[in-house]
Amino acid sequence: MDVSVKIESLSFGGSGVGRISGKVVFVPYSAPGDNIKVRVTKDTKGFAEGDIVEFISASPLRKEPPCPLHSICGGCQWLHIPYKEQLKAKEEIFKDTLRRIGKIDPSIVLPAQPSPMDLNYRSRVQFKVLESKIGFYKRESHELVEIPECPLAHPLINRILKGLRDVWPPSPSSIARVDINVSPSEGNGIVSIYLSQRSDLDFNSFFRRLTTSIPEITGLIVHIAREEKISGSSYLFSQEREFRFRASEGSFSQVNYRQNLNMKDYILSMADLKGDETVLELYSGGGNFTIPIASRAGKVIGIEVGKSSISDARENARINNIRNATFIQATSEKG
Fold it and tell me: Per CATH, is 2-57 categorized as 2.40.50.140?
């Protein structure tokens, strides 16, 4: 069934929101202001979902996506919408979530702070692998779309992706996933390969060929079930203002380097620390916020459940000569 729909807003998850006879319908890759014909693909008591069949009139907000695979690849939802409008939508979605679920007055929410970069900012990307193809799954499917490069990824990630293809193993069928992590400040990266079954491939030799092609790669980690095989380094360093951080492979880290710097500056400004406070940070990770806070507070306690993140946090305190930070490995509820 094809119906005419006017898109009114954007939803969590990326779809545009319209109405069919009063019922909410979610339409991927639409934009507020679109007048479209929609083919309903799912119809429930509370909502419907549909795909764009035809544009009656396109929204003036629309722009040409910077990726030819947008709306085919399932990696992005809003590249056809200007970043300024994306930011507005994210702010409204957040406010609506607080109002509906938390019963919190959304007027307390401060304006969203824009990222210095809306493209080429991601320092970590996870790619799916099928036979010799590397890419992303189509939306709501396991059909792989091969990606020559990603406009959201840091340029070094795209170079490593090309280098991987150039030296790809002759029989990569056991490789299910590839993660690429880079350090924008240091200009190097590590590659993590996840195998679906054991392989007799010589990964040390593969690592040597990979680093010959892309010398910025400093480590290769191969995951087989619960085992790891490491060639080179399993962590990256990052210089962030006056602080230096280590991030182990598998530990959480912010993917937007420059926006992460902005967040730290913003938090320190809002906290207005005097030097005698005791600060408790939950979900402290590798000390991303804890270390700069500790440089201005009397004492900081970080609670983090991840073993590798706790190890990174303690090492980052040592590297930065921070002596007033304590890290406890526990859930936030028990810590």
Answer: yes
Structure tokens at 67: 């990726």
Domains 2-57 and 124-233 agree in fold: yes
Task: Read off the pLDDT of residues 49-104 as tens digits, 9 standing for 90 and up.
Answer: 999 999 999 999 999 999 999 989 988 999 999 999 999 999 999 999 999 999 99
The mean pLDDT of 154-176, rounded to a whole number, is: 87
Enumerate residues 6+ apart whose C-beta is below 8 A from 162. 148, 149
How far from 131 is each of 69, 128, 144, 175, CA to CA, in Å?
20, 10, 10, 8
In whole angstroms, give the CA distance from residue 306 to residue 12. 28
Please give the Cα distance from 158 to 49 (Å, whole number). Answer: 34
Residue pLDDT, tens place only, 264-294: 999 999 999 999 999 999 999 999 999 999 9
* Cα–Cα distance, 177 to 174 (Å, whole number): 9
What residue ranges do the domains of the chain occupy? 2-57, 124-233, 256-329
Please state the rounded mean pLDDT for residues 16-44: 96
More confident residue, 262 or 226: 262
**CA dihedral of 322, 326, 330, 335, whole degrees rounded to 10:** -140
**What values do phi and psi take at 38, rounded to 5?**
-120, 135
Q: CATH for 256-329?
A: 3.40.50.150
Domain 124-233 falls in which CATH fold?
OB fold (Dihydrolipoamide Acetyltransferase, E2P) (2.40.50)
